[in-house]
Design a protein that fits this description.
Structural class: alpha+beta
Order of helices and strands: HHHHHEEHEEEEHE
CATH topology of the largest domain: Nuclear Transport Factor 2, Chain: A
Radius of gyration: 17 Å
Strand content: 25-35%
CATH architecture of the largest domain: Roll
Number of helices: 7
Strand order of the largest sheet: 2-1-6-5-4-3-7
CATH class of the largest domain: Alpha Beta
């Protein structure tokens, strides 16, 4: 239940602790156990229908990727609403304008780039890290937009278990 509340419904650790009648430490332990159990599951992946194709959103994501990969942070900011929300799972939740989001990517020690992709049928952006075997998906980023403007970014940087436990990870477009 804690994994569902945290990773799907974006509840904070404090909110989950309150709902579960536990402590933040207890919730963290439950998240660790739950994620470990999910990672250990075997069997057929869940089949989802193809995501709806939205040409306007796809073009916005392509532009976002192009600017992000060039480290053109002012250009990326121009694609977002003034009150765009950012959530970096287990690290930050608030306004993009009040976050160190771009600084963290700028000072990353691992070579990275972003591409359009899918995890278990869900369209996402994938942060790719460069290693001995070339570019590999590291974690997803969800982008929400309305009216051609990005209003929410959810970055799963602190959830390294997502990609390895996914049934299917596809890098499908421009990187």
């Amino acid at each position: 239940a804690c994994v569902l509340l945290k990773d799907v419904f974006d509840y904070s650790l404090e909110e989950i602790a309150d709902l579960a009648g536990s402590t933040v430490g207890g919730v963290k332990a439950a998240l660790n156990r739950g994620r470990s159990k999910l990672a250990a599951l075997s069997g057929e992946p869940i089949v989802r229908s193809e995501p709806k194709s939205d040409p306007e959103l796809l073009e916005l994501l392509r532009r976002y990727i192009e600017l992000f990969n060039r480290r053109d942070w002012d250009g990326v900011r121009a694609l977002t609403s003034a009150d765009a929300q950012l959530r970096v799972a287990d690290c930050f939740k608030g306004r993009l304008s009040e976050s160190p989001y771009f600084v963290e990517y700028e000072k990353a020690s691992t070579a990275w780039k972003i591409a359009i992709g899918e995890i278990d049928g869900e369209a996402v952006l994938l942060v790719l890290h460069h290693g001995e075997d070339g570019w590999k998906p590291a974690h997803p980023v969800r982008i929400e937009a309305a009216g051609g403007i990005i209003n929410r970014i959810t970055d799963y940087y602190a959830c390294p278990w997502i990609v390895p436990t996914a049934g299917a990870v596809v890098v499908s477009g421009p990187a």
